[in-house]
DNA sequence: CATGAATGAGGGTTCATTCAT
DNA sequence: CATGAATGAACCCTCATTCAT
């Protein structure tokens, strides 16, 4: 009867368990973005509507949960970079578009998550970051090659500056802030557009180089 | 006056008490900047070389200590603004100078301190912030009046952008970061220099307006 | 019988269910002996190769599992007592043989299991203990009747002393300990051999009496 | 004014703090003896009448508290050994006396405390154990030299056997047990009295040797 | 006024037990 | 009947804040 073996998946992943996991990650992303990286895990569990131990079953250490959120955010941002490259004909317009899109995806929320003893060299992270790296590098190089973007900055500079400028402000204190973020990005982008108006100290930051030093790329 | 018991002024600010207070504030500033805004107060006391209760005598609640540090940092930054205005002949060069100086004063470290239930409308804060406001406003207006800085940004935009770009990265993980901060500021400044290269969404942020909304100015 | 639906006996004790139960008990005994009485039930289930809920189906409360292990250990020790009585001609040699055999069966591991709210008066336990009681009583009485064992001790004294002397030492810290246990038993046995060298305080402990008081016989 | 410097002890140990520490240790000893080594620290604090954090201030890790109790118990037992040596003319009677006294001091409670990751090689422990070692060794050697105790056992055998025979039974289930303990010790002692009635397997356990292997001496 | 000690309210985590597939 | 997932109570520990010397 070979070939007719019933397709018994080893253990079907139980619909509700999957939903729970997703609800936890969603709640975590929301709360990390809103309230910073120190939100009590119990509150995330409550917001997700599950018991705290369920959270621990899915993410035995706090880092595991943080990493999951970082991964999903990173993936979404990579998508925006690819989109921008593909859909925008002017290469510096692509950089602008990506930058504003990254802000909307809350790229700035990543930084505070990388706190403490978070393992920045976890294989999954490295892999996902490679994809982001490649996508942004592509974006930046095109603009520079076309002479539309100053040549003395790297993809790393762009990512860090954008992340910082879009970092959530403490507490939920400044919802109004969002309105200003895009202004600041626009100013920064104006500073990035060729021709350069001033000289920069140090040398261009590459994502690769940043990763080597600290892993704080994104 | 020999022979007359020295008049005991009602509240003579005993020399050592004053020194203690200063040592506490200094220790707090250092540790907030180095290790983030969550350092245990006991550690600050230890670093200052005083008992924890002494710290509490001077600053009954944690917020009181944080506020003191914020005030002193703010004051130092105001000084830099004044200095830049006075000592730099070109008004946009003054803006550049102030911006880099503010970074060196760790203006970015202010943000993480404003966490939680910190009262951002405390009279002392408002007063100190007024002084900063005035100084930066002056700086910006001069540059704009001289046609050296784009007119569609406000002092609030400058302060927020600079604060964000210089925020410490999580942990002490990225000491290398410091090396890049001034690059990013320089790019931002290039974007601020007249003539404007793009239009900005929203309207210019004034420090006054920001204060009204959220108090997150600095 | 082809074509005829097999008669479903009302409670056929499905072969695999029986095997599961046995595997659980075995795993539990091993882990209790190896790692103490506090091993998480999930680990026992894992070692047994079944899901934790299967364990709970068979043993609704932790105590039910512990009791099963206690019962099986008790039964094995009873067997040793019977063996010793039957196979050893000299009645005190029988006592010696049983004592060392009980040690090898890990009689000492029983004590730590009786912790907490374990119900020491469960009918099954009482029944099994009766059998042990009878067997050891027989062993002891024979030796005493033959004048080979001092008369002022009871079967209860023997059981308790042997259990205590063979209790596992904390952690797995002292594997070397095993080497000494038989020495101590031998000394104890020398003290039990007639004629008595000293007077004993109190009166002989019978298993029956101990059961009445506390159930800690075994 | 040299020589008249006021004797300002660096920090007088505050009477109530000392009392608290003692109350904690006492409560711990009682609860360890009564309920085993796993009693929640919070309960010990409650029994001692202090907040849990006070306990943690005095004993930052659980081990630190356990060690303190072990040290004090060990010291008391050493005292009994010295007493017995000094005050009993017949050297084997001294062994008997010490053995029963050690039981009354709850020497058996030590074993369960040495659980888990307890550091058995802490300097303080080693020191205290050396004193015990010396005292018991002395006691045993005198009896053996006088021909009153069998020569094929060591001080280590005595200590382990006595510890085991007096270990508290699980829970507080068997208060009645205490009544029997001295009977069993008496039997053991009869087995230790010269002349030897049987041969012992293995070789005599010395406290020194035991320490080397596992630290479970007492 | 300065100090070390004390406090109790959480946060992180584990585990016996129950539930849904 | 078997399973993995879910649950909540309880433990350990930290830290802002208060108290006693």
From TrEMBL, chains A, B, C, D:
Domain of life: Bacteria
InterPro entries: Homeodomain-like_sf (IPR009057), HTH-type_TetR-like_transc_reg (IPR050109), HTH_TetR (IPR001647), Tet_transcr_reg_TetR-rel_C_sf (IPR036271), TetR_SbtR-like_C (IPR049445)
Domain HTH tetR-type, chain residue ranges per copy: 18-77
Leader sequence segment: none
Alphabetical list of SUPFAM superfamilies matching this protein: Homeodomain-like, Tetracyclin repressor-like, C-terminal domain
DNA-binding region: 40-59
Keywords on record: DNA-binding, Transcription, Transcription regulation
Matching PROSITE patterns: HTH_TETR_2
Descriptive protein name: TetR/AcrR family transcriptional regulator
Species: Streptomyces roseicoloratus
Lineage, uppermost ranks: Bacteria, Bacillati, Actinomycetota, Actinomycetes, Kitasatosporales
């Amino acid at each position: 009867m070979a070939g007719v073996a019933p397709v018994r998946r080893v253990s079907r992943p139980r619909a509700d368990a999957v939903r729970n996991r997703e609800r936890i990650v969603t709640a975590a992303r929301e709360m990390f973005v809103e309230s910073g990286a120190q939100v009590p895990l119990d509150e995330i569990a409550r917001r997700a509507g599950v018991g705290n131990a369920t959270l621990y079953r899915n993410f035995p250490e706090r880092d595991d949960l943080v990493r999951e959120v970082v991964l999903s955010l990173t993936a979404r941002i990579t998508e925006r970079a690819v989109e921008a490259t593909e859909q925008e004909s002017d290469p510096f317009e692509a950089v602008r578009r990506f930058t504003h899109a990254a802000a909307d995806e809350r790229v700035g929320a990543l930084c505070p998550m990388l706190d403490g003893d978070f393992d920045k060299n976890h294989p999954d992270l490295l892999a996902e970051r490679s994809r982001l790296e490649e996508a942004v590098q592509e974006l930046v190089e095109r603009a520079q090659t076309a002479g539309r973007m100053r040549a003395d900055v790297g993809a790393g500079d762009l990512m860090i500056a954008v992340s910082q400028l879009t970092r959530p402000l403490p507490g939920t204190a400044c919802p109004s802030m969002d309105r200003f973020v895009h202004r600041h990005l626009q100013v920064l982008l104006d500073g990035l557009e060729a021709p350069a108006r001033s000289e920069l100290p140090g040398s261009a930051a590459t994502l690769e180089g940043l990763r080597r030093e600290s892993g704080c790329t994104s």
